[in-house]
Design goal:
- The chain has 103 residues and is mostly helical.
- It has one domain.
- 60% of the residues lie in helices and 0% in strands.
- Helix 1 packs across helix 5.
- It is globular and about 45 Å long.
Length: 103
């Protein structure tokens, strides 16, 4: 395990390792590591684990889509909802940061 990474950073690291050919499917099958990947979803707005369990594949699918890949290419369950190009571009910018530039 990589120390001191937040769950979003762990998911980014997971996707980077997967795209670069490392065997990462066992990480999703390990309950301990799986819980670390979705930890922020569990704590956000006091969501239950079932909701967090649905949000993790969505986030991973999004991260693969940003890299012009799909989770399915690597044997990872894919989220049904597809992101538009606009959604991908919006995610690259912080609305607070953009607002501060115009004030």
């Amino acid at each position: 395990m990589v120390p001191f990474l937040t769950p979003p950073e762990l998911r980014g690291f997971f996707v980077m390792l997967t795209i670069n050919g490392y065997a990462t499917l066992s990480i999703l099958q390990n309950p301990f590591f799986y819980s670390k990947l979705q930890d922020d979803f569990v704590h956000r707005s006091h969501q239950n684990p079932n909701c967090a369990h649905q949000m993790l594949p969505k986030d991973l699918s999004y991260r693969f889509q940003v890299e012009d890949k799909t989770s399915k290419m690597y044997g990872i369950p894919e989220q049904v909802e597809q992101l538009t190009e606009m959604d991908i571009e919006r995610s690259k910018y912080s609305s607070i940061e953009q607002l501060s530039l115009f004030n």
